[in-house]
Design brief:
The chain is mainly α and 100 residues long. The protein contains three helices and no strands. The radius of gyration is 20 Å and the shape is elongated.
Length: 100
Amino acid sequence: MRPKKYLNGQEDLQFHTRAFIPRKKALAANQGLYSGFLAAGLIWSLFISDLFWQRNIALFFLSCILTAAIYRALTAGRAIFFKQGLPALAALVLVLWPSC
């Protein structure tokens, strides 16, 4: 099915809206999953009393988020890296900073 073209060259907006709904739903699910993993992992790391393991768990979850952001940037668009990857990268630097 193709969008209907109007005399002024515009296309039917409802066609595009219906076509993009499944993509938007998947993107929203990805954002929710990303946020949930980040929050759960980092909150969990705050409750660990051993500083060595606390740091390692935080590094693991931040690395997972950074990896997901790089993958999404390569497959969906570079803007996602700036929204997801740079904050994770900044947090990784801050977690590693005291040990440098």
